[in-house]
Design a protein that fits this description.
There is one protein chain. This protein has 266 residues and is of the alpha+beta class. The chain folds into two domains: 100 residues; 142 residues. Helices cover 47% and strands 14% of the residues. The chain is built from twelve helices and eight strands. The strands form two sheets. It has a six-stranded antiparallel sheet with strand order 2-1-3-4-5-6, with helices on one face. It has a two-stranded parallel sheet with strand order 7-8. The longest helix has 22 residues. The chain is elongated, with a radius of gyration of 22 Å. The protein starts with a helix and ends with a strand.
Length: 266
């Protein structure tokens, strides 16, 4: 059975790496590049000199192996410092290079942060880098990586100078928060904080054209909007109805939040 996992790797199209506990809600790291998948397969190799050890805890990290159509192939759980659990082994075996795997995961996280910064609109990249740096330094000196009021004001004015602030920010929000806001790293919420600085008139073209409605629905129904806009957002009747129609058909689980939070302008 030990060789069974090796037989799966040629079928793997992606690996999602997340906190092992199923209720963590944390955003996974996703590996899709074939070269990176090969490297990860080597780092997940195990030693075979002992029988598998049955462990009842969740472990620290989960590696879900998916095929090219995102169908589940296997779930591995990493236990620090050097254990790896797979159901096919009946328990946990020792990693051949536990420190190497931990170093790779740190490198992978850093690379994804750099890609996120590169995706930011050019005027916002310095602030994006600052927030990401603060995120890695949380502790006694830094307790909140979010930008302050002055930083938000400077960033949004720089973005407005480019024109089409609403569509540009929504595109970055969509890339930063592809699912839900819960569980994402704090610096990834920077686009959501900036979206809160826009006026209603800057939203209207987004809804009127029918483009980018999905990320807008996610934003309006998410915790960042709820925390920062207790007085709700008001839209012209026709635009509110269009937003509700989309939520009703594509995201019914978020419809009630949209109905409560987005009201009709007088």
């Amino acid at each position: 059975m030990i060789d069974g996992l090796a037989a799966l790797w040629p079928r793997v199209g992606s690996v999602e790496i997340s906190v092992a506990h199923p209720r963590s809600g944390a955003e996974p790291l996703v590996v899709t590049d074939p070269a990176e998948l090969g490297r990860l397969a080597q780092l997940l190799a195990v030693r075979r000199e002992a029988d598998a050890f049955a462990c009842m805890c969740w472990g620290e990290r989960a590696f879900e192996l998916l095929d090219a159509d995102r169908r589940h192939l296997a779930l591995l759980r990493q236990h620090e410092p050097d254990g790896l659990d797979w159901a096919g082994w009946g328990g946990q075996l020792r990693l051949a290079d536990g420190p190497g795997l931990l170093a790779y995961l740190e490198e992978l996280g850093n690379a994804q942060v750099l890609r996120w910064i590169d995706l930011a609109p050019a005027p916002l990249r310095p602030l994006a880098r600052t927030c990401a740096d603060r995120d890695t330094q949380l502790g006694a000196d830094i307790t909140d990586p979010s930008p302050n009021r002055q930083e938000l004001t400077i960033a949004i004015e720089a973005l407005r100078a480019l024109g089409k602030a609403g569509p540009v920010l929504l595109a970055w929000y969509d890339q930063s928060v592809p699912r839900a806001e819960e569980g994402v790293l704090p610096h990834r919420l920077l686009p959501a904080l900036l979206l809160g600085e826009l006026t209603g008139e800057e939203w209207w073209p987004v809804i009127a054209t029918g483009r980018q409605i999905d990320p807008l629905v996610r934003y309006f129904s998410g915790p960042t909007f709820a925390a920062r806009h207790p007085r709700k957002r008001r839209l012209p009747l026709a635009l509110r109805q269009r937003l509700l129609r989309y939520a009703r058909s594509a995201r019914p689980e978020q419809l009630r939040a949209i109905e409560r939070r987005v009201l009709t302008a007088p």
